[in-house]
Amino acid sequence: MKTFNKLLICFVLITLSVILGIASGETTFGSKTNKLVSNKPRRQAAANVEDDVPATDAIPDKYLKHSVSVFKDTFEDSKVTKQVWKMPNLGNEKNDMIGIEMMPGKGVADLWFSGDMTGKPTMRTKESYEWPMTVSAEIEKNHKCSSHFIVVTTSKDFVWDWGTQDNAIKFVWNCDTKYILGKGQPQSGAKGKKCDAKGKYNVKIVVKGGVVVLQLI
Known about the structure:
mainly beta; 217 residues; globular; 5-stranded antiparallel beta sheet
């Protein structure tokens, strides 16, 4: 079974790594929102007012309206993909678990994942980014358990598991239910939200003011 990520765009206003993959298995972890605390010291002085955004839940509209695109990858240009992403070391399993497939006659590419990523590294951005930030992606759910995930983390050595971690927030499908997994959540009985329709989703993850939001359209 292959599942696909069509597109990923990262918008940053003002250090997190973005990680993509697919997970197999089931879990009851998760909730709708979770707090994220920056571990980087505040600037003593700002050269530009838009460079020093207060860490509050209410980010002024002027910051949201003046966000800039850091990168956009449709996976059609290998030079862009190699520049932006660090691919995981999966040994002999790599060719069976992750790849980029050009669609014949369409001039577009699909990034696909297959198999169980538990205990394994996955692709991640080479650069880290400060929040507030927005991650936009197009994902295709083509199977009941196309358990895609996107992770924002401060770790450069992240490996996937279904538990909560102090240094990562995970946005994940567990078959037909979507979750946000983060620090401080209960290890069982946490609430997810049903999201079982097959097809393409526009995914939007917003990290601002210490709060994260997951939106699927």
